[in-house]
């Protein structure tokens, strides 16, 4: 519309600024016409026509211009009208919005008033808060101090009672040991193994009502042996361990304990102590139990369990957990003046996890096996000792304990020396006999409270001297083979067991035993049975048991 509106204006301008050739001719010749009038007259008709043409054009252009202006005017009015309508509708929307905002404002005002009120309230609270906090803190502190004071005095009282109870417990235990004797004797009869053909059933029999009795029928004679406990051939490793576990855990309380497996070769000593991979024996079960017990006590106690393994062969000590298997160890008196013995160079493993336990056993077993050509044969001629030390300190009382558990798989007790052995076999047999005899002598001297106990007579007793004397505890697990061919060795083992047990039945019994025994200390090969006063002993034992239950 604009283009068309200005189009004619443009032509109009052009025409006025740049007149056409006719106009030019007129203006150029103007002055000349003044001088030569006759020539002007000659051409007078032409400009008039031109003027008329121009005027006609001008009129046409003006008409166009006016039409254009008319159009423009209409266009303007239309645009204004549209803008007006748009503005009107926008205005309406704005008005509506405004009304909405007004409404909102009206509803918000009370909320604003509440908020302002809340704000002021909160502001006051915030201003007051530090004072309130201070006050509350002071009160809480006072209360806490008071409670701590009360707890602390209750704690002191408990500690005092705990210490008193501990002393009492120790006293009771010592009394119990004194009355009952600190040597227990168990017997385990192994089952007849596959491939062994023997009329075993008739040789060993048990009392269905008394698990402390064992009968041997020897050449038509029935021999009765009374021990602290007899395990049937069907007894499980678990069942056996249950009977010894209180002894094992007492070393956490600071007691020294020795558990010996005694018996002829093939009677089940290693099975009882080491067991088999699927069904471990006392050694592994004891270490695991100690480990779990000290872990349970961990919040109040800090315990350290260390393990050593030693083999005594021909009176020489070998370090089974060490690197140098050829090295012979010595037993020395601790230079700290404590009177304790120690073995310089003996490897001690600290057990921190059940995996460590497995590693220790594997290493000990491997080292023992590598040093000999036939492990079974070698192990029957040497003593294997697993020495576990449990040292603990109580966090609250500072009380310290140290106990030692010695688990000993003794060398076979069969009397080889009498069977005409020679050379190295004879020396082995002599060494075994010497150490087992020494063990019997030491036990005898201890129970008789001799001033001199011959610990030094063998490496075994010397090494174990601190675990055999004082208020330490000993368990002799006498292993018996059920085979008829092993009858005489079984009788020997049981006689040894019976003797060890009998001498431990309190002072009265001791005196009787001493009076009826030979003056010389009995040796392994000269075991005497003293069953004749069984009834007297039973009476004494019953009386003592009553007394013990009274004390406990
Ligand atoms: P020792 O160490 O006294 O020479 P072992 O422990 O080696 O005797 O036992 C000899 C054999 O009898 C082994 O084959 C062992 O597995 C088996 N044995 C011993 N006691 C038992 C038992 N209670 N249950 C099953 N087998 C046993
Ligand atoms: Mg063995």
Automatic annotation (TrEMBL):
- Coarse class of the primary localization is other
The membrane-topology field of this record reads: Peripheral membrane protein
Annotated Gene Ontology MF terms?
Answer: ATP binding; microtubule binding; microtubule motor activity
Domain of life from the UniProt record: Eukaryota
Spell out the coiled coil positions from the record. 51-82
List positions binding ATP: 263-270
Q: GO cellular component terms?
A: adherens junction; centrosome; cytoplasmic vesicle membrane; kinesin complex; microtubule
Q: Which GO terms describe its biological process?
A: microtubule-based movement
Signal sequence segment? none
| Role according to the record | Minus-end microtubule-dependent motor protein. Involved in apically targeted transport. Required for zonula adherens maintenance.
Q: Which PANTHER family match?
A: KINESIN-LIKE PROTEIN KIFC3 (PTHR47972:SF5), KINESIN-LIKE PROTEIN KLP-3 (PTHR47972)
Q: Which family does it belong to?
A: Belongs to the TRAFAC class myosin-kinesin ATPase superfamily. Kinesin family.
Its protein name is Kinesin-like protein
Q: Which organism is it from?
A: Oncorhynchus tshawytscha
Supply the gene name.
KIFC3
């Amino acid at each position: 519309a604009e283009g068309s509106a200005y189009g004619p204006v443009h032509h109009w301008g052009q025409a006025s600024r740049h007149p056409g050739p006719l106009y030019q001719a007129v203006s150029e010749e103007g002055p000349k016409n003044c001088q030569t009038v006759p020539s002007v007259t000659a051409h007078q008709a032409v400009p008039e026509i031109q003027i008329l043409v121009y005027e006609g054009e001008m009129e046409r252009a003006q008409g166009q211009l006016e039409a254009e202006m008319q159009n423009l005017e209409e266009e303007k009015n239309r645009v204004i009208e549209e803008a007006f309508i748009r503005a009107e509708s926008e205005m309406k929307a704005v008005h509506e919005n405004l009304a909405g905002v007004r409404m909102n404002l009206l509803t918000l005002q009370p909320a604003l008033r509440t908020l302002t009120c809340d704000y002021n309230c909160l502001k006051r609270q915030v201003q007051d808060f530090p004072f309130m906090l201070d006050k509350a803190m002071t009160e809480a502190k006072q209360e806490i101090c008071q409670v701590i004071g009360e707890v602390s005095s209750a704690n002191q009282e408990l500690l005092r009672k705990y210490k008193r109870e501990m002393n009492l417990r120790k006293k009771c235990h010592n009394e119990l040991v004194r009355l009952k004797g600190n040597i227990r004797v168990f017997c385990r009869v192994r089952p007849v193994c596959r491939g062994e053909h023997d009329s075993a059933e008739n040789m060993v029999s048990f009392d269905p009502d008394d698990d402390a009795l064992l009968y041997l029928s020897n050449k038509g004679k029935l021999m009765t042996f009374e021990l602290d406990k007899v395990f049937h051939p069907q007894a499980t490793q678990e069942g056996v361990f249950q009977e010894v576990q209180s002894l094992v855990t007492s070393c956490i309380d600071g007691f020294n304990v020795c558990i010996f497996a005694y018996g002829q070769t093939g009677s089940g000593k290693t099975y009882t102590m080491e067991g088999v991979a699927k069904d471990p024996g006392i050694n592994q079960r004891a270490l695991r139990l100690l480990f779990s017990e000290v872990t349970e006590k961990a919040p109040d106690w800090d315990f350290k369990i260390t393990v050593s393994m030693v083999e005594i062969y021909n009176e020489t000590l070998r370090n089974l957990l060490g690197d140098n298997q050829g090295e012979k160890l010595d037993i020395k008196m601790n230079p700290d003046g404590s009177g304790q013995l120690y073995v310089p160079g003996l490897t001690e493993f600290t057990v921190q996890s059940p995996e460590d336990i497995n590693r220790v056993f594997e290493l000990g077993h491997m080292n023992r096996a590598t040093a000999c050509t036939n492990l079974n044969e070698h192990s029957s001629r040497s003593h294997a000792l697993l020495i576990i030390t449990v040292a603990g300190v109580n966090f609250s009382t500072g009380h310290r304990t140290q106990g030692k558990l010695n688990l000993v798989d003794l060398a076979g007790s069969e009397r080889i020396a009498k069977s005409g052995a020679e050379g190295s076999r004879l020396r082995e047999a002599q060494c075994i006999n010497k150490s087992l005899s020494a063990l019997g002598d030491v036990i005898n001297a201890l129970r008789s409270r001799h001033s001199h106990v011959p610990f030094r007579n063998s490496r075994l007793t010397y090494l174990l001297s601190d675990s055999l004397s004082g208020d330490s505890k000993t368990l002799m697990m006498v292993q018996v083979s059920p085979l008829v061919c092993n009858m005489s060795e079984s009788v020997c083992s049981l006689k040894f067991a019976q003797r060890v047990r009998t001498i431990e039945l309190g002072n009265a019994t001791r005196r009787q035993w001493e009076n009826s025994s030979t003056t010389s200390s009995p040796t392994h090969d000269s075991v005497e049975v003293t069953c004749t006063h069984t009834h007297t002993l039973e009476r004494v034992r019953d009386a003592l048991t009553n007394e013990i239950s009274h004390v406990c």
